[in-house]
Amino acid sequence: EWDKLREMVASLSKVLPQVRLVGWDLSYTTKGWVFVEGNARPQCVSAQITEYNGKLHLYQNMANDFKKYTR
Known about the structure:
Blueprint: H1 2-13, E1 23-29, E2 32-39, H2 46-51, H3 56-70
Antiparallel strand pairs: 1-2
């Protein structure tokens, strides 16, 4: 199922190629993966909440990488 999810996201990313960062909300159902919505301003809070440890350093590194492509 992971490959099907990756294919879905790859297809979705081609719909609006000018949007470089999208937070995809997807759900796995009895019928497979379902697209819920795409967020142009995603938040990275849930990963920190569920694991009970901070991930700020990882997100800062990612943000710095994104800045390279948006200048």
